[in-house]
Amino acid sequence: MRNIEMIRDPAMALDSESFVRAAGYARRSLPAEIHDPLIDLADHSPRQGFLLLKNIDIGYIPATPGSPTEATGKDLQSEFVLLSIARCLGQPIGYSPEHNGSIVQNIVPVRGTEGTQISTSSRVELQFHTETAFHPFRPRYLLLLCLRGDPQAGTLVASVYDIVEHLSQGDRAILRQSRFRTAVDASFLNGKTSGLGSAQPILFGTDSDLTFIYDADLMVGIDSEAQDVLERLAKAVRASTKSVVLDAGDLLVIDNYVAVHGRTPFKARFDGSDRWLQRTFVASDLAPSASDRVGRIITTSFD
What we know:
Layout: H1 17-26, H2 32-43, E1 50-53, H3 77-86, E2 91-95, E3 105-107, E4 126-129, E5 141-148, E6 154-159, H4 160-163, H5 169-175, E7 180-182, E8 203-206, E9 209-212, E10 219-221, H6 224-239, E11 242-245, E12 251-255, E13 259-263, E14 276-283, E15 293-294, E16 297-298
Parallel strand pairs: 2-16
Antiparallel strand pairs: 1-12, 2-14, 3-14, 4-13, 5-12, 5-14, 6-11, 6-13, 7-10, 8-9, 15-16
């Protein structure tokens, strides 16, 4: 992809509104092979629920940091391009408990979290989930830009259109009923504990325009029949899985209403050569979250 010229104003910091606005203006410089598939995705999500774009200009990439918030000394080229692409789909947002509310987040393996169900894990498979399935203002799109890849680390994606093909009509009907509850992710609780949310359906929409919400780790059925269906759903998700191994310059755009995602295990070395992704969330519209948002940062409390 040809270079998108970044406006180099030293006062324009990452996560500032001026930076996001400038990135939005720069989207007019995106080549057609990048820009047009994004507009198509925003108009109508593909059946597979994701779009893979390649050869994104990420600039010079230094050593992988040891944590998402560690200073790296890199320029903001990859962040700027990522947000330019995000603005084709809607409005970039952050969540106050996630990486201090940063709009662009560094996803890297971190010592001590290798076996956990969070984005900085490495040794275990990250279970399938809708991003922030528990949240009233979950993002429409999840963007993952690869700065440094790992051939062992496959991003796993499963589309609701493929998943329902493995389920009976009876199971689909139960999934449309308010018989499933989801816990809040620990990263949103700041060390506190939280119970399950109210009962909700998993499957929504018509057969030709489906959406769903799912979290293999945090979701339970409210009765034995619903729990049995949830277990069959887990098998259907597994049977519908596609694996995408990201290389440097690859951008994976996931429709968070249509597809769930996870990640295979990989071995972190913690020597500056580990896998490094940058992530941003995109909402179709900022207005619904106005009461729980400061600027672009959603502040919903789950105390």
